[in-house]
Design goal:
- The protein is 25% helix and 23% strand.
- The chain is an alpha/beta fold.
- The chain has one domain: Purple Acid Phosphatase, chain A, domain 2 (4-Layer Sandwich).
- Strands 1, 2, 3, 4, 5, 6, 13, 14 and 15 form a nine-stranded mixed sheet that branches. A six-stranded mixed sheet has the order 7-8-9-10-12-11, with helices on one face.
- The longest helix has 19 residues, at 70-88.
- The radius of gyration is 19 Å and the shape is globular.
- Mean pLDDT is 84; it is low at 3-26, 28-50 and 52-56.
Length: 319
């Protein structure tokens, strides 16, 4: 993980298997993980990251989940969110929900389900308009965002300042890329305009950039470095290994990954996708079954400056 102080445990807490354990204790712990755990590079599975009791509660901690895929993803979020929030010490939990209904799109009913499950806010992307019942819902629910750089005339909003009792305000911006995707308004200039209109007290600013091209995501990260707290990529459903703090204090990761079935092609059943690749004939894609994992990133942010103090890729395997 990336951390200003260089201390790997400052964000995640003590490791489950430590040097103080005997070899036999370490072997037993590794062979008997609990029902659900968090996995990150270099840390043995067996425990969720916890906020150390000795760390002063100065930073805002945000857990941001990647694209929720179908019933398996949203069921796992609903069942484990309270446990994850308590174990990570997250003050807020956000997610991209645009694939939560059947693996493609988001219905009003499912959006309500996810918000009622305890997610503080949902962002979306290019599949947000599939379900017509969502149009009226998104027009009246500020905690569900759609990309701000869609052309005018669509319902909903692309930015929201969340004000939760006892916490500093957090602005969330939702943007969509143009490279290898439908041509929309420029996300770079849209970001500039949105930032210019934010209230001064919203120093914590999180950007969900729903885009295909890694270069476009990296470009927006550098464009906004020092002006937002984090630029977090979504859309590809594959968690990347490049989480870092940019030069001027913005946390960045190319993609948060997904919350859904792991034995799959981006959350969908493998067989019809292989047939499509092999024959080029149309196939009906369906959400896969099997083991489920939730992936995303944990952020620590200084509320006084809005600068990120740490970012780490995060994964929770449902057993």
């Amino acid at each position: 993980m990336a951390n200003r102080a260089g201390d790997c445990n400052s964000l995640h807490g003590p490791r489950t298997v430590t040097s103080e354990q005997s070899p036999k204790q370490a072997q037993t712990a590794a062979q008997n993980p609990p029902a659900a755990h968090c996995v990150r590079p270099g840390v043995p599975p067996g425990g969720l990251p916890v906020r150390p009791a000795s760390r002063k509660h100065k930073a805002m901690r945000i857990l941001y989940l990647g694209d929720i895929v179908g019933r398996p993803g949203r069921t796992a979020v609903r069942k484990h969110l309270a446990e994850i929030r308590a174990a990570t010490g997250a003050d807020l939990v956000f997610a991209n929900g645009e694939n939560a209904s059947g693996g493609l799109g988001l219905s009003a009913e499912v959006a309500k389900e996810l918000l009622n499950a305890g997610l503080d806010l949902l962002t979306s992307g290019n599949h947000i308009w599939k379900y017509k019942d969502l149009h009226a819902f998104i027009a009246n629910e500020p905690r569900l965002l759609r990309p701000a750089n869609y052309p005018p005339g669509l319902p909903g909003r692309g930015v929201f300042v969340l004000r939760k009792d006892g916490l500093p305000p957090v602005a969330v911006l939702n943007l969509i890329g143009r490279t290898f995707m439908t041509a929309v308004d420029c996300p770079f200039r849209a970001a500039d305009a949105l930032l210019a209109d934010l209230p001064e007290d919203a120093r914590i600013r999180i950007v969900d950039f729903h885009a295909e091209a890694t270069s476009e995501k990296a470009g927006l990260g550098w464009h906004l470095d020092g002006r937002v707290s984090a630029v977090l990529g979504t859309h590809t459903h594959v968690q990347t290994a490049d989480a870092r703090l940019l030069r001027n204090g913005t946390a960045f990761i190319t993609d948060l990954g997904m919350c859904g079935p792991m034995d799959s092609c981006l959350g969908m059943s493998v067989a019809p996708i292989l047939r499509n690749f092999l024959t080029a004939a149309p196939e009906r894609f369906e959400v896969a079954g099997g083991p489920v994992a939730l992936t995303g990133a944990l952020l620590d942010i200084d509320p006084a400056t809005g600068q990120a103090q740490a970012i780490a890729p995060w994964r929770f395997d449902v057993r």
